[in-house]
UniProtKB/TrEMBL annotation:
Protein name: 6-phosphogluconolactonase
Keyword Glycosyltransferase part of the UniProt annotation: no
Organism field: Blastopirellula marina
CC annotations in GO: cytosol
UniProt-listed InterPro entries: Cycloisomerase_2, Haem_d1_sf, Lactonase_7-beta_prop, WD40/YVTN_repeat-like_dom_sf
Length: 399
């Protein structure tokens, strides 16, 4: 064997050995390209809430490879009835799920469940409590993890449940039964609580009621975790028949973006996070000008960088992308991306802000988009996974 060949062979084995050591030392997956090793980073686990009709059995778990955009085959994490909305605590230690039922406990309430994470990614049930109303459809955790907020669509009510240091739920300490109606006789004969959020850096909570065309404003009392009282002013009002469903707030709490389900619009409000005073600034459609079919909206989120807002359309079956003006907070439509399925009830932006995952409830598939880091528009990626009746996606970064 020539000296040149010996040297070449030795260098080859040395390079392989170094690459192998890096793989084992960092315990991260690698993509080996010609001449270099690229670090993908760890996989991102996410949990999927579903409606348990048909083939679904409860909450599922999958993983996203943030480098390739590939999603793993979903596995059942916990068998439970209608976990239609999920929330994961900021400390990444607990997952909470509503049970969108009407027969829990005394037979006149939905359920709320608290979980911890097992090492294999399955869920361990800690305890359950009544939501105090029928058909809970949304759950949100207070930023300091002292209580969570539950919205009861069927019952037209909202409740707050304290959280223990171990993540377990206590019975509700505040309960608000809304009364009234609005102009859409098919959907607004009575109140329908759809979502409740804390305003960032504020003692105020915003409760979105589709049946009343109002976003009610509550204030934390400070005396006990989860105790709320009606604020003065008491609400933000949208146009009759709009049917507000969900909302998003700017990071400073000074802009509120209300997504209206029934007329497929987005309202922008200036908001005082100290007093609750508001001023209407803008109203835009979520649909293309030439779309003539039936549509209802579903979900709205602001990108972590605060520059773009996304809203989902069910009927047009798309995600609308808007640019947020950094000075005024007003939005400009950037375009629409097909969700490659029917009824995108929910979507989530993956940690890192590079990908958006959309859950198509009626075609039982989850699709993924690459987010253009300059303008925020969405580009579909080829990876899809099949999950029966998916309706919520939540990421967890460790457990």
């Amino acid at each position: 064997m020539s000296t040149r060949r010996i040297v070449f062979t030795a260098l080859t084995f040395a390079c392989v050995a170094v690459a192998t050591q890096l793989v084992h030392a960092q315990q991260k997956s690698k993509v080996i390209e010609i001449g270099k090793v690229v670090d993908e980073g760890p996989k991102l686990a996410f949990y999927i809430g579903t409606y348990t009709r048909g083939d679904s059995k409860g909450i599922y778990r999958s993983e996203l490879d943030p480098q390739t955009g590939q999603m793993s085959l979903p596995k059942l994490a916990y068998e439970i009835d209608n976990p239609s909305f999920l929330a994961i605590s900021n400390d990444q230690k607990n997952l909470y799920a509503v049970g969108e039922v009407a027969d829990f406990g005394d037979g006149n309430s939905g359920a709320v469940s608290a979980f911890s994470f097992n090492e294999d990614g399955t869920l361990n049930l800690l305890n359950q409590e009544a939501s105090r109303g029928k058909g809970p459809c949304h759950v949100e955790i207070a930023p300091n993890k002292t209580f969570l907020m539950v919205s009861n669509y069927g019952g037209g009510s909202f409740s707050t449940l304290p959280l223990g240091e171990d993540g377990q739920l206590a019975p509700a300490v505040s309960f608000f039964q809304h009364e009234g109606s609005s102009v859409n006789e098919g959907r607004q004969k009575g109140p329908h609580g759809h979502a409740m959020y804390m305003v960032p850096g504020s003692p105020l909570a915003l409760a979105v009621d589709l049946g009343l065309d109002k976003v009610m404003i509550y204030r934390t009392s400070g005396s006990a975790a989860g105790e709320l009282a009606l604020n003065d002013p008491a609400y933000i009002e949208v146009q009759p028949g709009s049917g507000p469903r969900h909302l998003a707030t700017s990071r400073n709490g000074q802009r509120v973006y209300v997504l209206n389900e029934l007329d497929s619009t987005l309202d922008v409000f200036a908001f005082n996070p100290s007093t609750g005073e508001s001023e209407h600034l803008q109203r835009v459609t979520t649909l293309p000008a030439d779309f003539k079919g039936n549509n209802t909206t579903a979900e709205v989120y602001i990108h972590p960088n605060g520059q773009w807002l996304y809203a989902s359309n069910r009927g047009h079956d798309s995600i609308a992308t808007y640019r947020i003006d950094p000075e005024t907070g007003l939005v400009t439509l950037q375009g629409h991306a097909s969700t490659m399925g029917k009824t995108p009830r929910h979507f989530r932006i993956a940690p890192g802000g590079r990908h958006l995952l959309a859950a198509n409830q009626d075609t039982s598939n989850i699709v993924i988009f690459d987010i253009d880091q300059k303008v925020g528009t969405l580009k579909p990626l080829p990876s899809q996974i099949s999950v029966p009746n998916p309706c919520c996606i939540e990421f967890v970064q460790k457990y």
